């Protein structure tokens, strides 16, 4: 089932800008790692149900009790860039 | 007396008897850090001023007769556990300047029990690694031989506890990150049952596998710390609503009549001969103590590592999507638009191993590969879980090595990811199955490096682990302090 990973496509999906050198070295690593992961194809799992989680939980519900949240200044203080009480980001929609 | 060498239990008793003061104990630990951390690199940051004020309030609790088991005890915290007002970096450039506005649940619990937080401990970046060599800030060394790795990812936690730079530490374990460094540094590391300890405030790596646990110098200390940090939490919906017993209560009941399995797959080829000898000697020792040991089989053991790396990397690629250079963490400079801010912040902020895992996880989850890799790994997960369940129908515990080797020289494996991943072969199945396991020292190899024995139990059977480990520790000469 192995197929060469398309590193350009994967870095786009993962939203990471990498240098050409990084891409080359990552591609080499990934080919080896995926080759190793292919050992899984040797084991027959046709009759086995996948297990996402050991606890088998889904949609844990709780009462919707309002509690105090963090104030704006505290959270904005974590941001690398903020201005006038807002997160400061570069242009989001091209004009 | 070197106060930093005391166990949690011993220090707590001396504090309550007013034979030592909380500030003396803290001073002794900081003096030790000053003396050895230049060589070890176990701490990323210290918070002495805050620690001194915590020691002061611990002392007034003691003076008022309100002391608990951890009141006044200096503890180090792995740097992926959020501490309010104290930088929490995950050993990454991405979070170099992140100061959390809140405490993790385990920190709230430690603080309310009076523990004194000394500082934040070194680790592999985002807990991805087995040697603490992927830390963005600095290398960390093993106190038994400073040319060797302390293991990882909680390498700073294990190195600090082994060398007396903290009386205990918290680590996190996604695929062995508490047990393997405990093994390499000759201390006691416990990965509790999935859901026993709240993960709220633990920086997420692989949410279905991550668990916080104690690294201590004795088995009893491990039970004491687990008592303090376990319990349901409305802020972590995967944290079990379970009535935890007092984990120290039956610790001295011994192993007489217990049935212990040793998986054939855990003592086969590829295991370092000194490790194998020590583990088989430990099994013999348990028989001498009155347990019955048999070889058992854990099918699919060979598939656990690839399944683990697929599941954990897939979850990581999703969890680490939050680092976008906007709300917190590193932001690239002079970006012309929003997309570039995200792309460049992530490209510049993450280190090589983290990028490798994000890309692997992205691949495993991408269209066309999901069934062949991610879903396949989830099926293997069920086979591995069923394998443990079957053995536990007839056995109380499983024992084996924690790691296939002892601590190796710094730099010797860092260029070969698969060799590094295979070091997790005995620890990852436990996370995949969500069950508890401990590593404790069971001897030394020919170079004098500690060897870890892993004791595995069914979910929420930590008391059995404590009983066996305590009986082993009390009747063997392996619990030693390194000469550094």
TrEMBL record, chain A:
GO biological process, one term: translation
Catalytic activity: L-glutamyl-tRNA(Gln) + L-glutamine + ATP + H2O = L-glutaminyl-tRNA(Gln) + L-glutamate + ADP + phosphate + H(+); L-aspartyl-tRNA(Asn) + L-glutamine + ATP + H2O = L-asparaginyl-tRNA(Asn) + L-glutamate + ADP + phosphate + 2 H(+)
Keyword field contains Transcription: no
Superkingdom in the source lineage: Bacteria
Keyword Cell division: no
Keywords: ATP-binding, Ligase, Nucleotide-binding, Protein biosynthesis
EC number annotated for this UniProt entry: 6.3.5.-
InterPro entries assigned: Asp/Glu-ADT_sf_sub_c, GatC
Pfam families, per database record: GatC
Stretches that traverse the bilayer: none
One GO molecular-function entry: ATP binding
Task of the protein: Allows the formation of correctly charged Asn-tRNA(Asn) or Gln-tRNA(Gln) through the transamidation of misacylated Asp-tRNA(Asn) or Glu-tRNA(Gln) in organisms which lack either or both of asparaginyl-tRNA or glutaminyl-tRNA synthetases. The reaction takes place in the presence of glutamine and ATP through an activated phospho-Asp-tRNA(Asn) or phospho-Glu-tRNA(Gln).
UniProt record similarity statement: Belongs to the GatC family.
The protein's assembly and partners: Heterotrimer of A, B and C subunits.
Protein name, per record: Aspartyl/glutamyl-tRNA(Asn/Gln) amidotransferase subunit C
Upper lineage: Bacteria, Bacillati, Bacillota, Clostridia, Eubacteriales
UniProtKB/TrEMBL annotation, chain B:
Gene Ontology biological process terms, A to Z: translation
Catalytic residue positions: 78 (charge relay system), 153 (charge relay system), 177 (acyl-ester intermediate)
GO cellular component, one term: glutamyl-tRNA(Gln) amidotransferase complex
Keyword Nucleotide-binding: yes
General function of this protein: Allows the formation of correctly charged Gln-tRNA(Gln) through the transamidation of misacylated Glu-tRNA(Gln) in organisms which lack glutaminyl-tRNA synthetase. The reaction takes place in the presence of glutamine and ATP through an activated gamma-phospho-Glu-tRNA(Gln).
Family: Belongs to the amidase family. GatA subfamily.
Identification of the protein by name: Glutamyl-tRNA(Gln) amidotransferase subunit A
Native source organism of the sequence: [Clostridium] cellulosi
């Amino acid at each position: 089932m192995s197929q060469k990973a398309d590193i350009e496509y994967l870095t786009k999906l993962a939203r990471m800008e990498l240098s050409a050198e990084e891409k080359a070295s990552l591609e080499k690593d990934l080919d080896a790692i995926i080759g190793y992961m292919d050992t899984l194809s040797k084991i027959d799992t046709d009759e086995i149900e996948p297990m996402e989680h050991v606890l088998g939980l889904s949609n844990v519900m709780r009462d919707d009790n309002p509690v105090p949240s963090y104030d704006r200044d505290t959270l904005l203080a974590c941001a690398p860039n903020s201005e006038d009480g807002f997160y400061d980001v570069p242009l989001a929609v091209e004009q | 007396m070197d106060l930093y060498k005391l166990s949690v239990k011993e220090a707590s008793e001396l504090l309550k008897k007013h034979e030592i003061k909380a500030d003396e104990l803290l001073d002794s630990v900081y003096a030790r850090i000053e003396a050895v951390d230049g060589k070890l690199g176990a701490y990323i940051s210290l918070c002495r001023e805050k620690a001194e004020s915590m020691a002061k309030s611990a002392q007034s609790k003691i003076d008022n007769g309100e002391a608990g088991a951890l009141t006044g005890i200096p503890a180090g915290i792995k740097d992926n556990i959020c501490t309010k007002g104290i930088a929490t970096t995950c050993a990454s450039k991405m979070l170099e300047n992140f100061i959390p506005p809140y405490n993790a649940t385990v920190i709230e619990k430690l603080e309310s029990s009076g523990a004194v937080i000394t500082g934040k401990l070194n680790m592999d970046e985002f807990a991805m690694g087995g040697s603490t060599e992927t830390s963005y800030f600095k290398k960390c060394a093993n106190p038994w031989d400073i040319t060797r790795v302390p293991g990882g990812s909680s390498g700073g936690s294990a190195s600090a506890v082994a060398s007396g730079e903290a009386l205990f530490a918290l680590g996190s374990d996604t695929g062995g990150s508490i047990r393997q460094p405990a093994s390499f540094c000759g201390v006691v590391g416990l990965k509790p049952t999935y859901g026993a300890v709240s993960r709220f405030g633990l920086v997420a790596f692989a949410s279905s596998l991550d668990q916080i646990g104690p690294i201590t110098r004795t088995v009893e200390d491990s039970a004491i710390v687990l008592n303090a940090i376990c319990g349901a939490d409305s802020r972590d919906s995967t944290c079990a609503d379970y009535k935890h017993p007092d984990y120290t209560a039956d610790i001295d009941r011994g192993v007489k009549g217990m049935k212990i399995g040793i998986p054939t797959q855990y003592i086969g080829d590829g295991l370092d001969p000194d490790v194998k000898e020590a583990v088989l000697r430990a099994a013999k020792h348990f028989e001498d103590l009155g347990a019955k040991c048999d070889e058992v089989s854990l099918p699919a053991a060979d598939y656990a590592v690839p399944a683990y790396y697929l599941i954990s990397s897939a979850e990581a690629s999703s969890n680490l999507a939050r680092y976008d250079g906007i709300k917190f963490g590193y932001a690239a400079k002079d970006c012309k638009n929003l997309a570039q801010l995200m792309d460049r912040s992530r490209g510049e902020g993450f280190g090589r191993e983290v990028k490798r895992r994000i890309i692997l996880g992205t691949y495993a989850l991408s269209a066309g590969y999901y069934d062949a890799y991610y879903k396949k790994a989830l099926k293997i997960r069920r086979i591995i879980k069923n394998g443990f369940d079957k053995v536990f129908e007839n056995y109380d515990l499983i024992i084996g090595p924690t790691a296939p080797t002892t601590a190796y020289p710094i730099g010797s494996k860092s260029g070969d990811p698969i060799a590094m991943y295979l070091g997790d072969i005995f620890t990852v199945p436990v996370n995949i199955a969500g069950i508890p396991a401990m590593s404790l020292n069971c001897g030394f190899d020919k170079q004098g490096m500690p060897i870890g024995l892993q004791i595995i139990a069914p979910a929420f059977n930590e008391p059995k682990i404590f009983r066996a480990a305590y009986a082993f520790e009390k009747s063997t000469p392996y619990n030693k302090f390194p000469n550094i």
